[in-house]
Amino acid sequence: MIIIMLGAPGTGKGTVATILQDKLNIKQVSTGDIFRKEIKEQTELGKLADSYISKGQLVPDDVTVNIVKERLEQDDVKNGIILDGFPRTIVQAQELDKILEKENKKVDLVINLTTPDEEIIERIVNRRVCSNPECKTIYNTLLNPPKIEGICDKCGSKLITRDDDNEETVKRRLKNYFELTSPLIEYYEKQGNIYTALVSKTINKLGKDVAEEIIENIRRSMN
Ligand code: AMP
């Protein structure tokens, strides 16, 4: 099964994708995580990616598509993948369709998360992530705090704030989302495989609630 997580930054894509990965046993692959690993290891790709990410810009399509293409060739995603943060442009979506078509595959489900604009910045600036690259659990100091401040509940590692989770960069990322990524909603509506869910504290619905809803729907459609 090929699942895509779509949505503005801070809507809960990573949270939902991680729960789906654990419950459905489908590997989550986040292009943002791949870039952050490369940046940490100071590879050439990392340096290039950082020059865009630190400014809140998208990494160029050709670079990003190549990374995903290579990742899709690996054995652990042969039976399914949850793409978290890819595609982010129409060009990326078209390239993904071409790659999948060659293997007689297609995007099965696009999960489109929406959150009221006024909540997004609050969600992002309060986001904390586990520094352990094997864990990467996501918290929110207001909505979903860890039991002990600054420490991951799951693995005990230190929680950190992502470098690009500052208000200035977030505004740029949001602008990019609305200009370059949101047209993908219509792209996938035409393919008829999109599921839109609202994530918002005003209706008391967090990423984990949406994930449960989706798992229920997938299980029902399989029976
Ligand atoms: P994320 O962890 O998904 O929020 O991604 C962090 C940053 O990595 C984004 O703000 C972009 O600069 C970059 N990035 C991640 N995925 C993509 C993509 N599909 N296309 C271009 N840039 C990306």
Structure report:
The protein is of the alpha/beta class and 223 residues long. The protein has a domain at 2-115 and 166-204: 3-Layer(aba) Sandwich (Rossmann fold), CATH 3.40.50. 48% of the residues lie in helices and 15% in strands. The protein has 9 helices and 8 strands. It has helices at 13-24, 31-40, 44-53, 61-72, 90-102, 117-125, 167-181, 183-191, 207-222; strands spanning 2-7, 27-30, 81-84, 109-114, 127-130, 138-140, 159-160, 194-198. The protein has a 5-stranded parallel β-sheet, sandwiched between helices. The two termini are 15 Å apart. The mean pLDDT is 94. Adenosine monophosphate is lined by residues 9, 30-32, 35, 52-53, 57-59, 64, 85-88, 92, 164, 173.
Highlighted features:
223 residues; alpha/beta; Rossmann fold; five-stranded parallel sheet; 9 helices; 48% helix; binds adenosine monophosphate
Q: Into which percentage range does the β-strand content fall?
A: 15-25%
CATH class of the domain at 2-115 and 166-204: Alpha Beta
Helical coverage, percent range: 40-55%
Query: Superfamily at the CATH H level of the domain at 2-115 and 166-204?
Result: P-loop containing nucleotide triphosphate hydrolases
CATH architecture of the domain at 2-115 and 166-204: 3-Layer(aba) Sandwich
Spatial separation of the terminal alpha carbons: 15 Å
How are the strands ordered across the major sheet?
A: 2-3-1-4-8
**How many distinct helices?**
9
Number of strands: 8
> Which parts are unreliable, with pLDDT below 50 for 5 consecutive residues or more?
none
Radius of gyration: 17 Å
Mean pLDDT: 94
Bound small molecules, by name, code or SMILES, are: adenosine monophosphate
Strand-pairing-aware structural class: alpha/beta
Q: What characteristic shape results from the CA principal axes?
A: globular
Strand count, sense and barrel status of the largest sheet are: 5 strands, parallel
